[in-house]
Amino acid sequence: MTSRISSRRVFSGKVVSLDVDQVRFPNGTTGELEMIRHPGASAVVPILGDKPSPDPEIVLIRQYRYAAEDFLYEVPAGRLNHNELPEDCARRELREETGYSADRLERLTTIFTTPGFTDERIHLFLATGLTEGESSVETDEILDLEVLRLSSIVEMIRAGRIADAKTLVALLLTARRLGLR
Predict the structure, then answer these.
(1) Distance (Å, whole) CA 120 – CA 124
(2) Maximum CA extent, the chain
(3) What's the confidence (pLDDT) of residue 60?
(4) Distances from the Cα of 34 to the Cαs of 8, 31, 98, in angstroms?
(5) 34-69 confidence digits (pLDDT tens)
């Protein structure tokens, strides 16, 4: 296992912090790594209807992302607050970004976003039993909601129209779980 010898914080921001870590690698050598520290996040696939069909309607967000210089299709997601459970974060982000509340959340998996330089993990969930409500997006969130059939979403993935990693994993796991090919 890699072990941290020392760590120096070089930046603390609203979303991430940057540390420079001196580490000992599993082969005994040492080196310096820049690590983006992130509190983690949750993402949720919202399924409309009383119970999931093989080809349900899914609520996606089409959100402007500065880093991509474009709008991206995404599932609702957001950063964990201090001491917040991943399931609570998923429920909060679903409500804030879409206005929907979920009766049921099912854990799909947890993924590392980019383990080469960040410790961020995203917890992925499936949400069913949705009830409409009011959204409350933040001022820097520029987004629209789109309701699409899962089969259409899978075709968009195949065509390269969905490129966000957490969204790809969450949607493909959902398609597999529901038996859609």
Answers:
(1) 13
(2) 55
(3) 98
(4) 10, 10, 35
(5) 999 999 999 999 999 876 688 999 999 999 999 999
Say how far apart CA 101 and CA 104 lie, in whole Å: 9
Cα dist from 147 to 4, 36, 59, 87, 151, whole Å: 45, 34, 5, 23, 12
> For helices 150-158 and 165-177, what crossing angle results, to 10°?
130
Q: Of 90, 59, 44, 53, nearest to 153 (Cα)?
A: 59
- Edge-first strand listing for the sheet containing 77-79: 77-79, 41-46, 121-131, 101-112
**Shortest CA distance to 95 belongs to which of 47, 137, 61, 123?**
137
Kindly state the tokens that stand for 50: 């009383």
- The SS3 call for residue 151 is helix
For residue 117, which amino acid is it?
A: F
Which residues have a Cβ under 8 Å from the Cβ of 128 and sit 6 or more positions away? 47, 49, 51, 52, 102, 103, 104, 106
Q: What is the per-residue pLDDT across 86-107, written as a single tens digit (0 to 9) for each?
A: 999 999 999 999 999 999 999 9
Rounded distance, CA 75 to CA 16, Å?
Answer: 21
Residue 22 is predicted with a pLDDT of: 97
